[in-house]
Every structure is written in C-alpha cells, then in structure tokens.
Amino acid sequence: MNSDLEPIHTAIYTNSDSRKRDFAHDLLQGRIPDALGFLMGKKGGYFSDARLAAFIEAEARYEHSGMGDAGEQSLKTRSTGERKRALLDFLLKQKPDFIVLDDPFDNLDRAFQEELRQRLLDLSESVTLIQLVNRAADVLPCMQAFARLDGGKLVEFPDYKPVTESQDNIKKLSIPPAPSGAPELPAPPGAPELPARDNPLVIMRDVRVEFSGKTAVTGISWEIKPGDFWELRGPNGSGKTTLISLITGDSPKAYGQDLHLFGRAKGSGESVWEIKEHIGYFTPAMMDRFRGYHSLENMLISGLTDSIGLYIRPTENQQSLARQWLELLGLERSAGELLRNQSYGTQRLIFCARAMIKHPPLLILDEPTAGLDDHAARLVTQLIVKMARESDTAIVFVSHREEPGLQADKLLELLPGPKGSSGKISMRSPG
C-alpha cells in the first residue's frame, strides 16, 4: 500500500489495545499514514457506534439529532439495525470519497448484518472503504489490502493470513478444563447447596408481554433447571431483554404471568432483592458503573458483597477465593493492578468471574463477548464453557453472534412474528 496506488479497500485488524478512535479521527482530519496515502486530500465519513452515540446525545439535548428530518422517528426508539441504517444514509448524503467503518456489524442480528453487508458491497463500487475490524469473520470480501493497528501504529501485511496468525501468536491466557481428580471451579466456603437438578429454578408457562398495546413476546414456555446450559438467541427487538427482565425481577410485566422463580410464584410476596440473591448477572453495559480505582482482586471480592467496588476490609477467606480465581484466569500476578488499566478482554474475564464467584443458582451472561476481538472472545468463551461444565450453576448465554467453541446444551430461539415473538426450543449434545 502506498500513495502511488489507486484507492483500495483496506481492512485493518484491531484488538482491545488498538487506539482505533484516535486513528479514525486522524484519518478524517487529514493526518494520513503513508500506507494509506491514497486518502490524502479526500473527504471522509465515520461509521461507528461512537458517532451514533453522539447523535443520540444531541437528540436528547436539543430534541433533534441533526441526522434527519424533525418529524422522523427518534434514534433512541429505533433498533440498533435501524440506527445503523440511518447513519449510513446520513453519511452518503455527505458524498464522501471514503468511509471509515468501525466494526460495522457489532451488535447486529444476522438479518441486519446481511442487509448492511450487501449495502457496503454495493457501495464499494463508488466509495473507498477502510474497515476497522476485530473479528476475522466480519471482513468484507471486497477488501484488497490488509493491516493491523498496534496501539496507534499501522502495520501492513501482504494478505490477511498474517493478521490472524499474529493474533494467535499473542501471549495467550489459557483456561483449560480441570484435569481428572483436580478441584473444579473455586467456590466460597459454606456455599449453599443448589436445588436438585430436577427441581426447576425458573418456570414460564405461556408468557405473553405487551408494551403500549404491542405484543413483544407470546406463548413463551421455558424451564431452567440447575446445571442447565442455555443459549438465548434472537434478532434485535425480538424480546430477549424482555424475558431476562422477567427473571431478574426488573420488569413489572412479570406480575400476572404464570411464572415461578426459585420455588415461588411471582407475586407471592418476594422482593426484587430476594430474587437477585439467586442470580449472577453480567452485561457489558454494567462496566460503566465501575469507573473507580478498583484492583482486580477487590473487584472479584465485590461480587461476594454485591457492591460496586469494595469498600470494606475483606476477610482472609474472601482474599483467598479471589486469588484462586485470578490463578485460574492466569492473572495472579496482576491481582493488585487497577481494573481500569486492563484490556477489554481481561476486564470481561474479571466481570464474568465476579458474577460467578458466589456460585449462584443462575448465571445470566448478556452479550458478554460484544465488541471483543477474536482472541479475547475466545478466552471469555473458554471461561463460560468451564463454568458450565464444572459447576451446578445454570447458565443462560445471550448473544446475537454464534461464538466458535461455545455450544450450549439447549437453545431458546425467539422468532419474531406479526403477533409478537414466539419461542423455539432445541436440545443439543454437549460440546
């Protein structure tokens, strides 16, 4: 790649240490590395979740995003796919010479991914595409040149294979299964015994939920038993969050349903906190609440106290348990380091372990690999599989994306229809 070449579509592989937002900003401001010299003097556009977030914030402040006509549906009320469609429409109206695509397929269901992929392929006939990508499977087939972003430095490769190989050669964490006869996952002393495996933790029968007269889900019947490993899958807006909120006690729509949680009928006098005592939960959106100066060890211990960070002196047993988890993750030497200074992949591992540290009856992991590169996602997947295979905790894994190496034993797939999403259950052999 050099400035003498015609404009060429370029895929740039990123990871959690890449300063891709700064890199994209430099491109748009005309600070072009030699390898992309063909962009010099050209007009660019930026397709990213960060750009969308800025439009949504402007809409909240000024009642108009600046993206479209005032009479159009607000960005906040649109699905992720609809928002990305609107952003691409907006960018094309600016008639750019090139567009920086920052992980364009993140958080999109399969249908919206295919729609966006086809639009971008059509667009590649007239506009140069610079794709920042953290998943090898997401690279557009029109890409002609390949590179990697190491921090803020662009490293060229003659083809794509070296990029994936370089990721594989990164110093790896390894989360192997426990060998025969070895202890399983670290468990807190005196952890209560879980219910028998044939005693359901969650029972839904013919659940139907409406919002403003519109049916979100209908006819959902679902049982979660101790030791189950479930995947909850469905396109954007299909009702995954609705179902999870019924289980966690966060939705008033649970009242009046045929719903039993941890041995009690919903609405029989239980408090939200009594429900949450039985649940470990993680979604990447939670990470914004943990912006303090917390060490890896203290963050794990806070999972035992259900606090945002640790503000009490931990016991020796709590410290010992946290260190056992850090050893399992290969992070024992980083126990005192600040979580905020770790890579996204390491942070996700810590948060997943934090949700599991009490060995709750039910663990819900909502999009735990969203936004991670292949390497980090593989580590998180290894940890989830280990937790599922070496404990009696029931796990519900929620994701838009099929993760290599993660095949739950049971699948609940939400299928949107004109009268709301219905559910299809499939049983699969353990991987």
From TrEMBL:
Gene3D superfamilies: P-loop containing nucleotide triphosphate hydrolases (3.40.50.300). Residues 202-430 form the ABC transporter domain. SUPFAM superfamilies: P-loop containing nucleoside triphosphate hydrolases (SSF52540). Residues 166-191 are annotated as: Disordered. Keywords: ATP-binding, Nucleotide-binding. Residues 176-191 have a biased composition (Pro residues). Transmembrane segments: none annotated. One of its GO terms (molecular function) is ATP binding. Pfam families: ABC_tran. Coiled coil: none annotated. This is Molybdate transport system ATP-binding protein. The lineage of its organism: Bacteria, Pseudomonadati, Bacteroidota, Flavobacteriia, Flavobacteriales.
